[in-house]
Backbone:
């Protein structure tokens, strides 16, 4: 590799064209700040400007052999690439200002929803806790342990029809307790 004149962009570019990474690094360091400032003015923010300039320097590295240096200064060529990449970037990423954006509802449950969910969970737990032991066990095995009626009936040493009867009575009692709580709550709100 040839000795590089640090003051001459065109010599650095000629060396870059033959794959001299040190020459390319020197060009990049020399023009990075001004390229970022130019891109920032065109695209409007620093992070997009960084992306544009990175893309521009990547293009220079990959197409360095196309540099002719026939009277055009390297900085002119570089800034033309930065401006073109900036304009292309703005066209592709045509965002509206945040103030113009449509407000999107938050899909997360709000504080009121969380409170209501917790209250309902506590009411269900209390209704299940109030069940007779065998009904509570039947409900727990089938719904919380995800066992079939046949599997749960083996655990409780009852027939499948007896298990189904325990489940029907348990669900009915839980539903009755929850309905009475709902009616009570509705009466309190009036």
Residues:
């Amino acid at each position: 590799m040839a000795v590089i004149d640090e003051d001459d962009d065109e010599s650095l570019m000629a060396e870059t064209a033959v794959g001299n990474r040190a020459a390319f690094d020197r060009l990049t360091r020399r023009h990075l700040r001004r390229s970022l400032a130019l891109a920032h003015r065109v695209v409007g923010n620093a992070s997009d400007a960084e992306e544009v300039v990175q893309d521009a320097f990547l293009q220079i590295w990959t197409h360095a052999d196309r540099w002719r240096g026939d009277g055009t200064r390297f900085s002119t060529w570089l800034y033309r690439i930065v401006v073109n990449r900036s304009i292309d970037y703005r066209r592709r990423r045509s965002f509206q200002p945040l103030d113009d954006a449509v407000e999107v509802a938050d899909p997360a449950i709000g504080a009121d929803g969380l409170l209501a969910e917790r209250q309902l969970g506590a009411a269900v737990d209390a209704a299940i806790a109030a069940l007779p032991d065998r009904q509570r066990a039947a409900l727990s095995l089938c719904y919380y342990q995800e066992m079939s009626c046949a599997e749960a009936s083996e655990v409780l040493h009852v027939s499948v029809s007896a298990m189904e009867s325990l489940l029907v009575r348990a669900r009915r009692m839980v539903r009755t307790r929850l309905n009475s709580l709902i009616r009570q709550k509705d009466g309190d709100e009036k």
Notes: The chain is about 70% helix and 0% strand. The mean pLDDT is 83. The radius of gyration is 36 Å.
